[in-house]
Amino acid sequence: MIPEHLRPFFWDIRADDFNPSAYPEYMIARLLEYGDERAVAWLRQTFPEAQIRQVVRTERRLSRRSANFWALVYGIPAEEVAALKA
Known about the structure:
- By secondary structure, the protein is mainly alpha-helical.
- The protein has 4 helices and no strands.
- The model has no long low-confidence stretch (mean pLDDT about 95).
Protein backbone atom coordinates (compact mmCIF):
# COMPACT_ATOMS: atom_id res chain seq x y z
CA MET A 1 0.00 0.00 0.00
CA ILE A 2 1.19 3.49 -0.80
CA PRO A 3 1.44 5.86 2.17
CA GLU A 4 -1.18 8.60 2.15
CA HIS A 5 1.29 11.44 1.59
CA LEU A 6 2.53 9.77 -1.62
CA ARG A 7 -0.85 9.17 -3.23
CA PRO A 8 -0.95 12.49 -5.15
CA PHE A 9 2.07 11.29 -7.14
CA PHE A 10 0.22 8.15 -8.25
CA TRP A 11 -2.91 9.61 -9.79
CA ASP A 12 -3.09 6.93 -12.49
CA ILE A 13 -3.27 3.77 -10.35
CA ARG A 14 -5.45 2.32 -7.60
CA ALA A 15 -3.27 3.22 -4.63
CA ASP A 16 -5.15 0.92 -2.25
CA ASP A 17 -4.19 -2.13 -4.30
CA PHE A 18 -0.65 -1.14 -5.27
CA ASN A 19 2.28 -2.88 -3.63
CA PRO A 20 5.43 -0.72 -3.99
CA SER A 21 7.77 -3.67 -3.50
CA ALA A 22 6.15 -5.49 -6.44
CA TYR A 23 7.03 -2.68 -8.88
CA PRO A 24 10.06 -0.92 -7.39
CA GLU A 25 11.31 0.61 -10.65
CA TYR A 26 7.95 2.26 -11.30
CA MET A 27 7.72 3.55 -7.74
CA ILE A 28 11.26 4.90 -7.72
CA ALA A 29 11.00 6.55 -11.14
CA ARG A 30 7.69 8.22 -10.33
CA LEU A 31 9.00 9.70 -7.10
CA LEU A 32 12.28 10.79 -8.67
CA GLU A 33 10.31 12.57 -11.38
CA TYR A 34 7.46 14.11 -9.38
CA GLY A 35 8.21 13.68 -5.67
CA ASP A 36 8.79 16.39 -3.13
CA GLU A 37 11.33 16.34 -0.28
CA ARG A 38 9.12 14.17 1.91
CA ALA A 39 8.52 11.69 -0.90
CA VAL A 40 12.22 11.43 -1.68
CA ALA A 41 13.02 10.93 2.01
CA TRP A 42 10.51 8.05 2.09
CA LEU A 43 12.02 6.66 -1.11
CA ARG A 44 15.52 6.68 0.36
CA GLN A 45 14.30 4.95 3.52
CA THR A 46 12.35 2.32 1.60
CA PHE A 47 14.66 1.33 -1.25
CA PRO A 48 18.41 0.68 -1.22
CA GLU A 49 20.59 3.36 -2.78
CA ALA A 50 21.93 0.87 -5.32
CA GLN A 51 18.39 0.24 -6.60
CA ILE A 52 17.65 3.98 -6.87
CA ARG A 53 20.94 4.53 -8.73
CA GLN A 54 20.05 1.71 -11.13
CA VAL A 55 16.72 3.37 -11.93
CA VAL A 56 18.49 6.67 -12.58
CA ARG A 57 20.78 4.83 -15.00
CA THR A 58 18.12 2.82 -16.86
CA GLU A 59 14.76 4.63 -16.71
CA ARG A 60 14.10 6.30 -20.06
CA ARG A 61 10.83 7.87 -18.88
CA LEU A 62 12.62 10.33 -16.60
CA SER A 63 12.65 13.82 -18.03
CA ARG A 64 16.06 15.11 -19.08
CA ARG A 65 15.86 17.63 -16.25
CA SER A 66 15.15 15.02 -13.57
CA ALA A 67 17.65 12.55 -15.01
CA ASN A 68 20.37 15.19 -15.02
CA PHE A 69 19.55 16.28 -11.46
CA TRP A 70 19.60 12.75 -10.03
CA ALA A 71 22.73 11.85 -11.99
CA LEU A 72 24.45 14.80 -10.31
CA VAL A 73 23.08 13.87 -6.87
CA TYR A 74 24.31 10.28 -7.18
CA GLY A 75 27.51 11.06 -9.07
CA ILE A 76 26.51 9.09 -12.16
CA PRO A 77 28.19 10.18 -15.40
CA ALA A 78 25.69 11.53 -17.94
CA GLU A 79 26.76 8.97 -20.54
CA GLU A 80 25.54 6.21 -18.19
CA VAL A 81 22.03 7.70 -17.88
CA ALA A 82 19.54 6.33 -20.42
CA ALA A 83 17.25 9.38 -20.31
CA LEU A 84 20.17 11.64 -21.27
CA LYS A 85 21.17 9.71 -24.35
CA ALA A 86 20.04 11.14 -27.68
